[in-house]
Q: What sequence folds into this?
């Protein structure tokens, strides 16, 4: 799902053919369903989303449990990993307790420390309340993140990742 989401773009997946992409098959949308507006983020939205991503990346690198907690909605967030095993078979794992994951990341004894080489590949905002972000870091890890706009910040509610 996440790979298709990134490859086709959210607008294509949701059937917004007028945005310059191939429309989704007719069976995925109904004429009576309202369509949420998908757009590039405003400068305010981008700043908030980038702040959450910075908390996430610095929280891993330092490690800093408080920054990780600010980056994620740990009581609701989930994580999916899709990586190749030693024989090249893709294995998918789900982590439903992000609090435990953040505890582990925040207690690392051998963190990379310092700046994390990273690049935000794309950001799309849906109806001002959700953001879809594709991110590359350490030249080998690719994330597909879903962030939600909370009262006081943007925060990650879902993370799917793969590595090279």
A:
């Amino acid at each position: 799902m996440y790979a298709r989401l990134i490859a086709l773009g959210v607008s294509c997946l949701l059937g917004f053919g007028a945005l310059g992409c191939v429309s989704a098959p007719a069976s995925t949308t109904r004429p009576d369903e309202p369509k949420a507006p998908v757009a590039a983020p405003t400068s305010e939205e981008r700043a908030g989303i980038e702040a959450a991503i910075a908390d996430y990346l610095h929280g891993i690198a330092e490690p800093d449990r408080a920054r990780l907690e600010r980056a994620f909605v740990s009581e609701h967030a989930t994580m999916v990993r899709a990586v190749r095993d030693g024989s090249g078979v893709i294995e998918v794992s789900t982590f439903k307790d992000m609090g435990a994951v953040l505890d582990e990341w925040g207690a690392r004894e051998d963190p990379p420390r310092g700046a994390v080489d990273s690049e935000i590949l794309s950001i799309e905002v849906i109806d001002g309340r959700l953001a879809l972000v594709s991110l590359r870091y350490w030249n080998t890890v690719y994330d597909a993140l879903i962030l939600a706009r909370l009262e006081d910040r943007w925060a990650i509610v879902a993370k799917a990742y793969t590595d090279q």
User: Anything to note?
Assistant: The beta strands are 38-39, 78-84, 90-95, 118-126, 130-137, 141-149, 154-163. Helices lie at 2-8, 10-13, 43-61, 65-71, 98-106. Residues 43-61 form the longest helix (19 residues).
